[in-house]
Design a protein that fits this description.
The structure holds 2 protein chains of 2 kinds. Chain A is of the alpha+beta class. Helix content of chain A is 38%, strand content 17%. Chain A folds into 2 domains: 11-150, SH3 type barrels; 158-237, no CATH class. Chain A contains 6 helices and 7 strands. Classes of the chains: A alpha+beta, B mainly alpha.
Chain lengths: 238, 210
């Protein structure tokens, strides 16, 4: 009996953003596609798909850990949406990855390696997967590695809190870091400072921190409101 | 002589029902009570349809009033209520990418402007009819039952909130609501019987076998 994996309802359902590069306010996340960085010891490739789990990507002050796991992204024959379910589980299909490029690409789930996070250039980030896209990626990776199917709803319960945190961090950076960069401040320095500020705000309070509260689905809306109000307050104080 | 029962609906329409005289034969009584039961059943359906239509009109009028506002303010208001952008996308029936573009200031079509307004009108109305419903933004994303993963967002996406409003006002049980939504909800949205999510010693969510 085949594993019967899930698929996106459409190409739009798979991606959060793609094709510009993606704005730098979006924290680097599982499912990001970067050009200009390659994995050692593998057949030639031009792009990678970040694999590290969202909850193990960051350390002190919200900064990325020095090395991240990734898989190589390669051109290949197209994988139609209906074939996601039971075929090609060694691949994470990335349809219409690059605007205007008819070539089909996919993440090669057996071509795994590490990348230096310092080498990730945000201006080379070509795409970000949506929340559902990230869960589909996790499901395919687990299926390829262990021949097990984990439901998307279960994967969401395990990763949902950290994916919400990434969304809120992006809102924070998009409001506060973007304003500072617009005045001519150095983007990398501003991103590091505002990431640390968000991390401090979000993690303060131990078991009652906003980060801890996200574990309870009933409190997530309140956490989002608190972060959005804090962003407004900081904008008003600036 | 038969007794008469007069029923007046909310719209002011009066119906008179003749209650059977119990001194008649059993067969005759059965026929009369059967006929009365059919008529009251018809009345029940008529009243339920009228109630549904009135509520839809109320929702429609609120939607039209809210839709007069700047559509980007409507996106922001849904965010201010604590909804995730993915939930906003599902309520409106667009992709997360579309909502992302709106937040950057890109234009919003008339249809989506109306759908944004409808979502706000729905959240206002369900809070009123189901008092107390604390924090609708949070409630939307929670499973509606312990035995399945279906959420209020799933139901709203299917019918614009009609079933949810019926349930919230006490006119359907959760099971009746879910049966009307999808007869196969127990299997289609079945909770994971193989794995569950627990917290490890450091508070991280882990997937383990049940």
């Amino acid at each position: 009996m085949p594993l019967e994996l899930d698929s996106p309802s459409s190409v739009e359902d798979l991606y959060l953003d793609r094709g510009r590069p993606v704005e730098p306010w979006r924290p680097v996340m599982q499912g990001d596609v970067f050009a200009g960085v390659t994995l050692h010891g593998l057949e030639p490739h031009d792009m990678v798909l970040v694999l590290s789990h969202p909850c193990s990507m960051r350390g002190a002050n919200g900064a990325l850990v020095p090395r991240l796991q990734a898989v190589a992204v390669r051109p290949r024959q197209p994988i139609p949406l209906q074939d996601w379910v039971s075929r090609c589980i060694r691949w994470m299909p990335l349809p219409e990855l690059i605007e205007g490029d008819q070539q089909f690409y996919a993440g090669a789930l057996n071509d795994i390696g590490t990348i230096e996070s310092a080498n990730l250039d945000l201006s080379n980030r070509l795409a970000c997967l949506s929340e559902r896209g990230i869960l589909l990626f996790q499901q395919r990776f687990a299926a390829n590695l262990a021949r097990v199917k984990v439901k998307l709803t279960t994967l969401e319960r395990a990763s949902g809190a950290v994916l919400i945190e990434a969304e809120l961090q992006e809102e924070w950076l998009g409001a506060l870091a973007q304003r500072r960069c617009a005045t001519g401040e150095d983007q990398d320095a501003v991103l590091a400072e505002e990431t640390a500020a968000f991390d401090e705000f979000f993690g303060a309070g131990g078991v009652e921190s906003y980060r801890a509260q996200l574990a309870d689905t009933a409190r997530r809306a309140a956490v989002r409101r608190a972060v959005r109000q804090e962003v407004e307050r900081r904008i008003a104080d600036a | 002589m038969d007794k008469e029962l007069e029923v007046t609906t909310g719209g002011g329409v009066a119906s008179t029902y003749r209650l059977p005289n119990e001194s008649r034969t059993a067969g005759s009584l059965l026929n009369d009570w059967s006929a009365l039961r059919d008529r009251t059943s018809d009345l029940h359906t008529e009243v339920a349809d009228g109630h549904q239509a009135a509520r839809e009109e109320e929702l429609n009028q609120r939607t039209l009033a809210i839709a007069l506002r700047d559509p980007h303010d409507l996106v922001q208001e849904l965010g201010d209520r604590g909804l995730s952008w993915a939930t906003v996308a599902r309520l409106v029936g667009v992709s997360s990418t579309a909502v992302r573009k709106w937040r950057r200031g890109e234009p919003i079509t008339g249809e989506n402007r109306r759908n944004l307004a409808a979502a706000i009108a729905f959240l206002d109305l369900i809070r009123e009819v189901s008092n107390p419903l604390d924090d609708p933004g949070s409630w939307l994303e929670m499973p509606l039952t312990d035995v399945a993963t279906v959420t209020a967002v799933d139901l709203y996406a299917a019918d614009g909130g009609k079933l949810l409003l019926d349930w919230a006002s006490g006119r359907r049980t959760p099971t009746q609501m879910l049966d009307s939504f999808d007869a196969e909800w127990r299997s289609r949205y079945a909770a994971d019987s193989q794995f569950e999510v627990v917290s490890d010693d450091e508070g991280r969510a882990m997937i383990v076998e049940r």
